[in-house]
Amino acid sequence: MKRRPYFWLFPRKCLACGRVIDAKLFYCDSCRAQMPFIEDTRCEYCGCGKEICTCNKKKHHFDGIVAPFYYEHGAKHAILKLKRYPIYAEPLAKECTEVLNRYYGSILFDAVCAVPMNKKRLKQSGFNHSAALGKQIARRMGVPYNEMLVKVGKSAPQHELGLNFRAGNVRGMYDIIDEHFVKNKTILLVDDIKTTGATLDECALMLKLGGAVAVYVMCAGIVKKTGNISR
Length: 231
Ligand SMILES: [Zn+2]
Ligand SMILES: [Zn+2]
Prior knowledge:
- It contains 7 helices and 7 strands, in the order H-E-E-H-H-E-H-H-E-H-E-E-H-E.
- It is an alpha/beta fold.
- The protein has helices at about 30, 75-80, 90-105, 120-125, 130-140, 165-170, 200-210, and strands spanning about 65, 70, 110-115, 150, 175, 185-195, 215-220.
- It has a single domain (about 25-220), classed as Rossmann fold, CATH 3.40.50.2020.
- One zinc ion binds near residues 43 and 45.
């Protein structure tokens, strides 16, 4: 096992049980087996397992979405860690790239980009965790990572709004940085989680308006829908 120099000072511990593990992993084998992996038979519109899909084949501006996990239990824990520690991008990117290869292995992606943060939030966090994840995914795919989108407006944080108000909240909030990176490209758009898909929809729309041929979405986690939600 190849370990980095700082491993002995800060050994990686399993997020669930605390056992010391390989620095490239975030769960030990037995805890990983209990992770909320999305079922193999999936809805191509919302990315959930077909058994639990309630989207009624709702169309999006993105051409497809894939994620390794539901946003719950151990996966939620890891994704929340990513928001604070960029080191979690690498193991999550490994899980993401595995499902990406399984479902979109035949697609030739030109580049990866991520959902941007506004300047204020970026300053508070110190880094954009979705971009950190996107860069690691791009590295594993062997394609360039480009900043393609900028958040131009100030929207209320999506988690503070009811699910039915989220699409309106993000409309017109994103813009293309440079069409050169977008035009005629097949793009993988990365975000940490998908809840309603409103933010991803808006970003995909901007990329399409900028001339993207296709936009596929890769998230680390998908929030399971509960109740009767229209988006
Ligand atoms: Zn464990
Ligand atoms: Zn669905």
